[in-house]
Design a protein that fits this description.
Pfam families: Glyco_hydro_28. This is Endo-xylogalacturonan hydrolase A. Its main location: secreted. It is found in: Secreted. This protein is elongated. 11% of the residues lie in helices and 45% in strands. It has a single domain, classed as Pectate Lyase C-like (3 Solenoid), CATH 2.160.20. It has an 18-stranded parallel sheet that branches. The protein has 404 residues and is mainly beta. Helix 2 links the parallel strand 1 and strand 2. The termini are far apart. Bound molecules: 2-acetamido-2-deoxy-beta-D-glucopyranose. 2-acetamido-2-deoxy-beta-D-glucopyranose binds next to strand 21.
Length: 404
């Protein structure tokens, strides 16, 4: 065999790229290029270069396949640069290295930056992305300055779909969307972070949705140790539908206003089952004064939320990150308008019983909050909701004494 022929075969072997894509005169029925990266078969071989070369070969409108039954070891950042309208099909296992020295200070394990059109999905539903975060949980417990990466970090871009697969044990957040992403769908995902040691899987937010428009999360189950879905500064037009969260800090706007003026608006959450969360749904804003900025939250609805064993069903914190003395001097000034908690049912935990909700609006802010069809009971029986600075037409009977 000639050397050039051998090199050609090697190149083809590296990605199984189809060298000749049948071209139809009608471009709309062209076959898509399909690449299957070759796995090294050992955790000491980083499969990221093979996957990147598959993205280079097939990323422009083509398909990259991680076959069923296969394991790919990802020992470095997987960057989707070069993907444009590509379809990344994960049927096997993508397993990240647990090397805390390498990952320390990295922002992303999977980086999706300014990509127009990307599907990361499993057709079989068997695909798994494993962030292998146990070493990070243990190191972070000993040293909270250890800076851990997000498993799937999406910034900018448009038309992103992640569906029908499982993600487990990210060192930090599962999925982050920011940087002005326009249009992202997350559907049929199972996200679970569980520590095997006594150190919790800290800060494993399911979704951090920041500056973006038209992000949807649907049919998704999350087990983790921090916010299930966090609506962060700049989130606009987010829909969350049919979600089950276990062990989290809930479906949460914020925190906002820590060191800049922050806005969250046009959020719709419908159909959530919230199990053993610190709260099912809520808003957390920093108060005025210091270096804090103004928080503005507009048009946010949670509807149809089943509460099981959560400490609070509903919570508003206007003194987040500061203590009550600080807030006596620098009251909460957040502007909340068009905020609706509708159709909450179920039972809270014994933690604050008989209190099931704690709505502490800022005395210098605006509290445009409505609670309707609130049927949450305390584990001890009839519950009560604590309020401060809420409107007279709030929609639920409340007692004084709200805090936080
Ligand atoms: C409120 O937010 C929902 C959900 O994003 C959106 O459909 C609706 O148009 C918004 N309403 C207004 C008045 O902007």
């Amino acid at each position: 065999m000639s050397l050039s022929k051998a090199i050609l075969l090697l190149l083809i072997g590296a990605t199984h790229a189809i060298p000749h894509i049948p071209r139809s005169p009608d471009s709309t029925i062209q076959a898509r290029a399909v690449c299957t990266p070759t796995a090294g078969g050992s955790s000491s071989i980083d499969d990221v270069p093979a996957i990147k070369s598959a993205i280079t070969s097939c990323g422009n409108g083509g398909t990259i396949v991680i076959p069923s039954g296969s394991t790919y070891y990802l020992n470095s950042v997987l960057d989707f640069a070069g993907c444009k309208g590509c379809d990344f099909q994960v049927e096997g296992l993508l397993k990240f290295a647990s090397n805390t020295a390498y990952w320390g200070g990295k922002t992303a394990m999977i980086s999706v930056s300014k990509i127009a059109g990307l599907k990361i999905r499993s057709l079989t539903g068997q695909g798994v992305i494993d962030g292998n975060g146990q070493n990070a949980y243990d190191l972070f417990a000993a040293d909270s300055s250890y800076d851990r990466p997000t498993l799937l970090y999406i910034t900018g871009g448009s038309n992103i779909e992640v569906s029908n697969l499982r993600q487990k044990n990210p060192p930090n957040v599962f999925i982050s969307v920011k940087g002005g992403t326009n249009g992202a769908l997350f559907d049929g995902l199972t996200l679970s972070a569980t520590s095997k040691s006594s150190n919790p899987a800290k800060n494993t937010d399911g979704f951090d949705i920041g500056e973006s428009t038209y992000v949807t999360v649907s049919n998704t189950k999350i087990t983790n140790d921090d916010d299930c879905v966090a609506f962060k500064p700049g989130a606009n037009y987010v829909t969350v539908r049919d979600i089950t969260c276990t062990g989290s800090h809930g479906l949460s706007v914020g925190s906002l206003g820590k060191s800049s003026s922050d806005t969250v608006k046009n959020i719709w959450v419908e159909g959530a089952t919230m199990i053993s969360s610190t709260k099912a749904a809520g808003i957390k804003t920093y108060p005025s004064g210091g270096s804090h900025g103004l928080s503005t939250v507009t048009n946010v609805t949670w509807t149809g939320v089943t509460v099981q064993d959560c400490d609070y069903a509903i919570q508003i914190q206007s003194c987040y990150g500061e203590d009550a003395d600080y807030c006596d001097d620098n009251p909460g000034n957040a502007v909340l308008t068009g905020i609706t908690f509708d159709g909450f049912t179920g039972t809270t935990s014994s933690h604050y019983a008989p209190v099931t909700g704690n709505l502490n609006c800022g005395s210098k802010g605006t509290c445009g909050v409505t609670v309707s069809n609130y049927k949450v009971t305390a584990s001890s029986g009839t519950g009560k909701v604590l309020c401060a600075n809420t409107p007279t037409n709030l929609g639920v009977a409340c007692s004084s004494g709200a805090s936080g």
